[in-house]
Design brief:
With about 475 residues, the chain is mostly beta strands. The protein has a single domain, classed as Beta Barrel (Porin), CATH 2.40.160.10. The chain contains two helices and 21 strands. It has helices at about 5-20, 50-55; strands at about 40-45, 55-70, 80-95, 105-115, 145-155, 160-170, 185-195, 200-210, 220, 230, 230-240, 250-260, 260-275, 280-290, 305-315, 320-330, 380-390, 400-410, 415-430, 440-450, 470-480. The protein has an 18-stranded antiparallel barrel. β11 and β12 (about 250-260) form a beta hairpin. The protein starts with a helix and ends with a strand. Residues about 1-45 have low confidence and may be disordered.
Amino acid sequence: MSLSPRVLLVSASLVLALASPGVARASDELAPGTAVPVEPGEKTGLRTGIPFFDDITVAGNLYYFQRKRTRKDPQTGRYARNLDHATANASADLDTGLIGGVAGFNFGVFGARDLYSNASPYHEMAFFPSGDPFHPNWDATRSRPGVSVYKGYLRLEPGPFRAKIGYFQSTEPNTLGNIWSLMPGTWRGAEAGATFGALTLGFAVADAYKAPWFRTMNRFYRADGTTPVSYLWSAGAGYVFSDGPLEGTRVEVAYGRSQDFLMNAHLKTEWNGTPGGTPLSLGYQLYLMGDSDDSGGPNDLFEGLAHQHYAYARLDLAPWRLSLESTYTRAPQSRGKVVDGSTHQLGYHAYRLVSRYGLSKGAIDPWWDCRSDWNHDAEVAVFARVSRTLDDLGLEGLEAGISGARGWGGRSVLTDRKLGEWAVSLDLGAVIPRGPLEGGSVRFHFTRYRNLTGLPDWAPFGNLFQSEYDFKFLIHIPVGG
């Protein structure tokens, strides 16, 4: 049985009422895609004199997530149910202390189960009916409840060096990112990093990945789904300028490759300062993608080098926060490689070293929570967001926001029609600072998305879907920590 918006509002009010008198400032991003797991912090009472045991931290999280999304049918003009579910998630984390001040272990597990689902089971908050990205079961009507390990790695910290060996999330400067639902995805392999003053170095290698909607690890394959990719790797470096004319500037460069398949690279720059006492961030980023196949076959994804440019400005005028961002994308295709009205070349910029959805993720920053990825060939997109804390109005800790995005100029070799799209989103959220629900949060997010092309889902634009209404509601309760 689904819940009405009125019931959701009452539920949120009850959660806030159980907390102590005030709530803390809500975070900028209210969608689960940017949720960050609470760091373990509850130490055991038994002391052994051995740091490996005495410094153990244990914590967990409980989540309730509900989503209702309708999508337009271009043939009838009507909106049909696309997603309609409520999902419960729970996670537990255990981190040990260090043996000899050098070696420790981190472990994390989570479980997911739909409380109800009246539409597609492929909604990313529970486990997909299929176990890998290459063999979907489109006849399935229910997701799979279950439990999955999302991290389990040996951690080494000798001096300025760091390393993870096992199942991990990438945190060093490189091109490997993390897919998020309510929990992060997982790489299998090793990662190393080192910090020398203002310079940070990173390297990672992996042979498998698990998106958070799969319970088990998946090996890598090329886009054809049959040619194995034995490994991928990436290296990068970051530097922070602490004085001189570039004071407050951070620069990161990284490069990665998957075996005989794809390459990616990025440049990230950001300046942070307080002109006139007002916090301001300015940034520019460049993302590159390329492939090693020029045959026109299923592994030939780009005609030349694909690239995306991203620029942003963020201003904190308390109680207001303002963001203005923009992207420009090139993901070239060749008309000479169109066969029988179709092409294997993507026509959009997917920043990852294994192309199949859910099989890897790149360390790409722009994400606007306005449904589209705004990343088709020749597409220009702009995004603006205004948010406000409501403490001065007697609503301590609440924050509301409105954002909008507009994309135009996208093109495909399969049509002469240009891509156009826009979206408007509304957010409301709060975080609880103390009391029995300390660290908990309640978040609402609504998006109205319009596809202006009138063309079908996924073709001729490979990453474009029809117009939608999308409502998301999230309750998060930390346990321990």
